[in-house]
Amino acid sequence: FINANTGYAVGFAGTILKTTNSGSNWTTLSSGTNNHLMSIYFTDTNTGYAVGCLGIILKTNNGGNNWTTLSSGTTYDLYSVYFINANTGYAVGFAGTILKTTNGGTNWIALPSGTMYPFFSVFFTDANTGYAVGYTGTILKTINGGSNWNALSSGTTYDLNSVYFTDVNTGYAVGDNGTILKTTNEGNNWTEPSSQMTSNLYSVYFHDTNTGYVVGDGGIIFKTTNGGNNWIGLISSNYPLRSIYFTNTNIGYVVGDAGRIFKTTNGGSNWSALSSGTSHYLSSVYFTDANTGYTVGNFGLIIKTTTGGIGSIRSIATAEDGLKIYPNPTTTQITIEFQQITGNAVVSVYDIQGKVILQKPLNPQKGSLTHLSGGRGVIDVSTLPGGVYIVKVQDEKNIVVKKLIKR
Predict the structure, then answer these.
(1) Coil, helix or strand for 223?
(2) Is residue 218 classed as helix, strand or coil in its secondary structure?
């Protein structure tokens, strides 16, 4: 995201989605390639880059209306792109590939990484200091703008899929099997806080030193408010989620498999399931302001929205929209109160690891919840251990996610 309204997301085979303001669906554009796109980054509202399979690098100078294929000098897959200013950027990928440009993508040079392991993410904290993470826990660091890269000890052998720093000292790397690593001394040492997650994690994002998010397999979204010491599950949407980005403390987007796009306007407490108009895999999201954004997918599909991701699309149910879950906290049972259910609906209860521990159909015509009457259903949670849980109610058009405290 570049500002409060404009943002972009990319995915497989040249798909690019864009959003610019709040009001309509996503519409189809063209990227000029059939290659899968894995990462997108914008340096201003008009200038952006997307990288992907077979060394593809695309550039736009007019906010995504046209894309030019740049000469990358490689046919290896590229998984991540990052720019530190309008001219200087980096792309990393398969077989230890690290590329650098100093003239806005006109030329790319290959930098020596010292490894053939693939890199899945790259991030720079200033003009000289950057990090690349990837296969079997590999973390490389440069302090001279990429001329030399040194291997750091990550303490894990799991693949690392995403890296993000909140300042020059503090950074996070996430990866397979719920791996979350943290450093507070510029990468010299990495610790692994107890996240209690086992799903593969694909993206990490922090909008301040304490508040961050991770997404991954099973459609999980987890949030921390204390710098990664504890993580709370927000939602599980079944399909893997690949990328997350926030425009401010409240508004954020995630994209993933099967064309899934979700949006929050309250810091992750509730998520809207947006209709992307595609079932293609989406891999990366980036917004330039609150309304203008892009995402990409398979077979060269490019989709654009001018609505900040909302419009004539699915909206999330909230308490104000006619759905309530109470009492909360509870010791014995919860009541699901609703005004309208569209088609078949399901109530699911997840533990903080994202595992479904209770699930019931919710359909007032079929009386499928115990004591269902007058738009209310009661679920017995008395046998659940005390702790924090996530309750999700989903029908054919709506999703509501609430945190539940069981005493």
Answers:
(1) strand
(2) helix
Strand order in the sheet with 150-152: 119-124, 130-134, 139-142, 150-152
Residue pair 88/102 in contact (Cβ under 8 Å)? The answer is yes
pLDDT tens, residue by residue, 304-333: 777 776 643 333 334 444 567 888 888 998
Distance CA 222, CA 255 (A): 14
Nearest to 314 by CA among 18, 26, 6: 26
Q: Alpha-carbon distance 293 to 6, whole Å?
A: 5
Tokens of 211: 């508040």
CB atoms within 10 A of CB 182: 17
239 Cα distance to chain centroid: 12
d(CA 59, CA 51): 9
DSSP states of 271-294 as a string?
-EEE--S--S-EEEEEESSBEEEE
Q: Are 303 and 28 in contact (CB under 8 A)?
A: yes
Q: What is the pTM of this model?
A: 0.76
Higher pLDDT, 399 or 168: 168
**What per-residue string of b and e applies to 47-56 under the rule 16 or more CB within 10 Å gives b?**
bbbbbbbebb
Buried b (16+ CB within 10 A) or exposed e, 93-111: bbebbbbbbeebbeebeeb
- Per-residue tokens: 255: 């994209």
Tell me the two tokens of residue 274: 């947006």
